[in-house]
Amino acid sequence: MCKHILLRLPTVILAIIFLVLHHYKTQGYWAYLLLMALNLSLVGMMATMFALHYSEQGVHLIYISQGLTMGIIAVATATVFGTRDLAIIYGLPLLAVVIFLAFTGSTFPDNPIHLIFIPTAMGIGAVIATMLHQEQLRTFMASQQLEHNALTDALTDLPNRRSMQTQLQAEWSRAKRDKRCFAVLMADLDHFKAVNDQYGHEIGDEVLTILASRFTATLRGGDWVARWGGEEFLLLVSDATTTSALAVAEKVRRSVAEPVFATSAGNLAITVSLGVALHRQNESIDEVISRADKALYRAKQEGRNRAVLAEGHKGADILG
């Protein structure tokens, strides 16, 4: 009896230490090392008990095999469903068996280790599965955060240039396949350098943040906006016509011009100029962006606070 307890004791102690450290210590490299030790102790315990009883032709060999099987199932169950569901799946039937034995007056085995071995093995399996699940979840969340950071502008929380290039490529492929048209809008804040020079870059950052929120609130569902660089933004309008693209541009222009920007330095009047270009068949992404950029340059030359349609399109420019 003492021998069986000693074989199980290291695994139980490690499992308890793991739980205590998990709840009262910060996460660190210790988690991986202790988890490996816990797994090795569990495997070592099962292997030692199996070899011991096999060599002695003991009657407990079946319990060891059952315990190992139940431990594996417990790990799988806890990993997929969680420890709460594990308690329901295994705990309720076990409780029903105990109640049945007590109700019918059946005698319990003389050696109680037979009754507690399998639940103990399942409990250890649940501990290991829970730790594995949490470590995997932290790893997944960290990778998601890294991906988010790689594709998002840190200041405005808009997609960055890299993210927009991916979206542009996808939209270009759809347009080529389905014979559809999309529009690219290049937007640039008017006199933004003067804002930074007069009020400082912190106020300039506030302006960019407010601008991003107005862009997001104004665009239609399915349209995209990204910070292209500095105070320049690129807007992607799906399924566009000349009329719809210009309407979006004018809506964006008005949303920036009205109302004033409420910043730490007071209310500031901010405007934006836009260049609008519709994608043409057999035209590359860089070419349509270049035409939108040239239209933006014209908007700046013609007085700012306006949207200008790229040359070669039918339709009139929209002036502020």
From TrEMBL:
Catalytic activity: 2 GTP = 3',3'-c-di-GMP + 2 diphosphate
Transmembrane segments: 6-24, 31-54, 60-81, 88-107, 113-132
Segments forming domain GGDEF: 180-312
PROSITE patterns: GGDEF (PS50887)
Biological source species: Halomonas alkaliantarctica
Residues forming coiled coils: none
Name under which the protein is recorded: diguanylate cyclase
Keyword Transferase (UniProt): yes
GO molecular function: diguanylate cyclase activity
Pfam families (alphabetical): GGDEF
Gene3D superfamilies hit by this protein: 3.30.70.270
Tree of life domain: Bacteria
Cross-referenced NCBIfam families: GGDEF
EC number from the UniProt entry: 2.7.7.65
Keyword line: Membrane, Nucleotidyltransferase, Transferase, Transmembrane, Transmembrane helix
